[in-house]
Amino acid sequence: DTGVSQNPRHKITKRGQNVTFRCDPISEHNRLYWYRQTLGQGPEFLTYFQNEAQLEKSRLLSDRFSAERPKGSFSTLEIQRTEQGDSAMYLCASSPMGGVTDTQYFGPGTRLTVL
Amino acid sequence: AQSVTQLDSQVPVFEEAPVELRCNYSSSVSVYLFWYVQYPNQGLQLLLKYLSGSTLVKGINGFEAEFNKSQTSFHLRKPSVHISDTAEYFCAVTEENNDMRFGAGTRLTVKP
């Protein structure tokens, strides 16, 4: 069990550019979550996958955001035409079965800075 | 929809003193409650969770929390803190829809 990994750990980009983050969950975890955390706030739910199916998306996930989990293993989160308001820590978490009582295991996050 | 309020943004305490981090939630249905800890430059780690049954829940690192339905609270306690407990603590609630809501966090600073 190597834990949830996220790459890159830090990303600095200019407004208007596209960025993509990757999350590798714990092996054989069926559920994968994406959260966004801004300074001084707790994580905010963005979306989650059950295997390769994206089952729920938050209203926070605008049309510029897209997430995929093509083979039910790793996931990517892409932000198109970044804005300064997108600057945040993006967290990924995974859980074994996907029930509400499952423990979510979090990665260290990707810190995005949009200049 | 459920929501969480962490009443203290910062809690400074001296080493070996007791500590209580407060959490209140709002929900119209049955809830599941969690406390996570975030050490600097690390991911969130589960401390404990309340699913059902006994209202006193024991977690890792000597922490415990008590679910109080009438007061809609889930306060986190530790009888004697260590320097290594310095971290950000998040209370979270979820209902059956799997959308976990986190509080804004409480920064616990343990001073020697």
Q: What structural category do the secondary elements of chain A indicate?
A: mainly beta
Low-confidence stretches of chain A: none
Main sheet summary of chain A: 7 strands, mixed
| Separate helix tally of chain A | 0
Write down the Rg of chain A. 13 Å
For the record, give the distance between the C-alpha atoms at the N and C termini of chain B, rounded to a whole number.
41 Å
The level of helicity of chain B is under 10%
The global form of chain A is globular
Number of E-state strands of chain B: 12
What is the oligomeric state here? heterodimer
Note the total helix count of chain B. Answer: 0
Overall description:
The complex is a heterodimer of chains A (115) and B (112). With 115 residues, chain A is mostly beta strands. In chain A, 0% of the residues lie in helices and 49% in strands. Chain A contains no helices and eleven strands. In chain A, the strands form two sheets. In chain A, strands 2, 4, 5, 6, 9, 10 and 11 form a seven-stranded mixed β-sheet that branches. The N and C termini of chain A lie far apart (36 Å). By secondary structure, chain B is mainly β. Chain B contains no helices and twelve strands. In chain B, strands 2, 5, 6, 10, 11 and 12 form a six-stranded mixed β-sheet that branches. A four-stranded antiparallel β-sheet of chain B has the order 3-9-8-7, with no helix packed on it. In chain B, strands 1-4 form a two-stranded antiparallel ribbon. In chain B, strand 5 and strand 6 form a beta hairpin. Chain B is globular. The model of chain B has no long low-confidence stretch (mean pLDDT 92).
SSE topology:
The complex is a heterodimer of chains A (115) and B (112).
Chain A: E1 5-7, E2 10-13, E3 19-24, E4 31-37, E5 44-50, E6 53-57, E7 65-68, E8 75-79, E9 88-95, E10 105-106, E11 110-114
Parallel strand pairs in A: 2-11
Antiparallel strand pairs in A: 1-3, 3-8, 4-5, 4-9, 5-6, 7-8, 9-10, 9-11
Chain B: E1 3-6, E2 10-14, E3 19-21, E4 23-26, E5 32-38, E6 45-50, E7 56-58, E8 64-68, E9 73-78, E10 87-94, E11 101-102, E12 106-111
Parallel strand pairs in B: 2-12
Antiparallel strand pairs in B: 1-4, 3-9, 5-6, 5-10, 7-8, 8-9, 10-11, 10-12
